[in-house]
Design goal:
Layout (H helix, E strand, L loop, with lengths): L13 H12 L6 E6 L5 H16 L4 E5 L31 E5 L13 H4 L2 E6 L10 E4 L6 H11 L6 H14 L10 H11 L5 H9 L4 H12 L2 E3 L8 E6 L1 H6 L10 H5 L7 E9 L2 E8 L5 H7 L3 E2 L3 E7 L2 H18 L1
Helix pairs in contact: 2-4, 2-5, 4-5, 5-6, 11-12
């Protein structure tokens, strides 16, 4: 197995694993399986879902779809992933699947217009690693200790006796590298490197994957990043003196540089390196007075507390939520919640 189960720390129990295995192995030849990941899928959400989907295909599951809420558009850095042929627009997803499996979604709200499948499906299985997961659905494989959802997906594939091949490994490796920041973040444990070694042993090319996922960006996006970073603001006194750095990108910014919203997902990495701030925040406009907010922490502040308080979710070091109102209004709420999170801590 890729990782060993643990008990007493909020991870899946042996009963949870057994229920998940039984749900998959009990599928009939004509069963319809729907895989769903969260809105605006990142590398972990998409890589875990497609990698697991390819594993189900190896098991002989024929009626299989993968999808996510919102516009059926992927970042160029992820469009090449093996298993992308499983993807269908949300409007074409099975309305009443026999089994629905959710990936990397901490709450029902992250499933958007697909949330009703939890009620219409014969069974619902949730694979996730967010400590803030609300335990929606019926069968929960939620492991806050896992560095990425792909760790959970890989473990379930192992328990289903699906051997790793290069196509499955690519998806799981992309997921693992994106959520560990190319093995730079605190979640990078010896177990993470052991899993990476198993994935690399299938023959995948880490250099090629890294270039595709992390090191390729349109010139328009480079110019957009420069403009948005120029408006960044540093507030050393925020978060009880731990510091906050933040910026924002508007729909007009995207239009002016002829870029799609997904290019902004990497912007937070350019902001979080600020030495004078523990907390970094990027607001990305998605509609009038609506913002997708990404937060990162270097460790002094648990940003998941802030996100959960604002109807979002995530981890201690990375979290997000949907903010409504003007930029200053949303940032004001973040400042207040940062102080509350530190007081609670």
């Amino acid at each position: 197995m890729l990782t060993g189960p643990a008990s007493g720390d909020g991870g899946p129990t042996e009963a949870d694993w057994a229920a998940a295995v039984a749900a998959v192995r009990g599928l009939s030849a004509e069963a319809r399986v729907l895989l769903i990941c969260h809105v605006n899928p990142d590398g972990d959400a998409l890589g875990s879902m497609l990698g697991f989907g390819l594993g189900l295909r190896r098991l002989g599951v024929r009626r299989l779809q993968a999808t996510f809420p919102g516009p059926p558009e992927l970042p160029e850095s992820l469009r090449w992933l093996p298993g992308a042929d499983l993807l269908v627009p949300a409007v074409e997803a099975y309305p009443d699947p026999d089994l629905v499996i959710c990936f990397d979604a901490a709450s029902e709200s992250r499933l958007g217009e697909l949330v009703d499948r939890l009620d219409t499906a014969g069974a619902a299985l949730v694979l996730d690693h967010h400590a803030s997961n609300t335990r929606f659905g019926g069968i929960h494989l939620v492991d806050p200790r896992a560095a990425a959802t792909s760790v959970v997906a890989g473990e379930l594939l192992a328990r289903l006796d699906v051997p790793l091949d290069a196509e499955i490994a690519v998806g799981l490796y992309v997921a693992l590298t994106t959520d560990t920041g190319s093995f730079r973040f605190e979640a990078t444990t010896p177990a993470v490197h052991r899993l990476a070694a198993r994935l690399l042993a299938t023959g995948i090319n880490p250099g090629d994957i890294s270039r595709r996922v992390f090191d390729t960006r349109p010139f328009g996006a480079v110019q957009l990043f420069g403009e948005v970073l120029l408006r960044a603001r540093l507030e050393p006194a925020a978060a009880a003196g731990h510091g906050l750095v933040w910026t924002y990108a508007t729909l007009d910014d995207l239009a002016r540089h002829d870029q799609r919203p997904y290019v902004l997902e990497a912007l937070i990495d350019s902001v979080r390196c600020t030495a004078e701030a523990d907390v970094a925040c990027v607001l990305k406009q998605v509609a009038a007075d609506e913002w997708a907010v990404s937060m990162r922490s270097k460790g002094a502040v648990d940003v998941s507390r802030v996100a959960v308080a604002l109807d979002g979710g995530g981890h201690r070091f990375a979290a997000g939520f949907t903010g409504r109102g003007g930029v200053e209004e949303v940032v004001g709420r973040i400042r207040a919640r940062l102080d509350e999170a530190l007081t609670a801590h």
